[in-house]
Amino acid sequence: MHSDRRLTPRVSCDIAAEIDMLFGDSIDVEIIDLSRSGCQIRGDERLNRLDSVASGAPLEFSLSFGLDGCPIHTFCRMIYKRRETQSSCTMGLRWNSVPEHQMEILQRFIDCRLAGVVQSSAKA
Fold first, then answer.
1. Mind listing the domains of the chain with CATH numbers?
2. What would the 3-class secondary structure string for the chain be?
3. Which of 24, 34, 21 is nearest to 91 (CA)?
4. Which residues have CB under 8 Å from 9's CB, separation 6+?
5. Model confidence over 57-108: pLDDT tens digits?
6. How far apart are CA 57 and CA 43, in angstroms?
7. What residues does 31 pair with on adjacent strands?
8. What residues does 19 pair with on adjacent strands?
9. Given 3, 58, 65, 66, which residue has the most CB atoms within 10 angstroms?
10. Are the C-beta atoms of 108 and 34 separated by less than 8 Å?
11. What tens digit of pLDDT does each residue of 15-39 get?
12. CA–CA dist 14, 91 (Å, integer)
């Protein structure tokens, strides 16, 4: 049996989101699971081309999406990146900052999913 070693439980989802890079570009992605500490996203080859800068500093960017009709704006750091296919990859992200009131919305969404209640209002 697989044991999840995460400190915070994650829930599966399908939420449209947008990465806003510090230098102005944006990339449409899909959040495929999320937790109180971060999320996993899926994207196309543009996401696969993102990497840590030459200095070796971690890749950080803004991620925006919607939950319960409320916009969520986070700043996150890439923890890992995995190529799935030639044109698709996933990326694990850790929240660096999420405004407190938005974290409450995020936690409510997670709690409902963990309780088995699927919310139809998870929209970007």
1. 11-114 (2.40.10.220)
2. CCCCCCCCCCEEEEEEEEEECCCCCEEEEEEEEECCCEEEEEECHHHHHCCCCCCCCCCEEEEEEEECCEEEEEEEEEEEEEEEECCEEEEEEEEEECCHHHHHHHHHHHHHHHCCCCCCCCCC
3. 34
4. 35, 110, 114
5. 788 899 999 998 999 999 999 999 998 988 899 999 999 999 999 999 999 9
6. 22
7. 15, 41
8. 27, 63
9. 65
10. no
11. 999 999 777 789 999 999 999 999 9
12. 15
Residues 30 and 42: beta-carbon distance below 8 Å: yes
Q: How deeply is 30 buried, as exposed, middle or buried, from its count of CB atoms within 10 A (0-12, 13-18, 19+)?
A: middle
Confidence check: pLDDT of 3 > 50: no
With contact defined as beta carbons under 8 Å apart, do 47 and 27 qualify?
Answer: yes
Predicted pLDDT of residue 118: 56
Q: Is the pLDDT of residue 53 over 80?
A: no
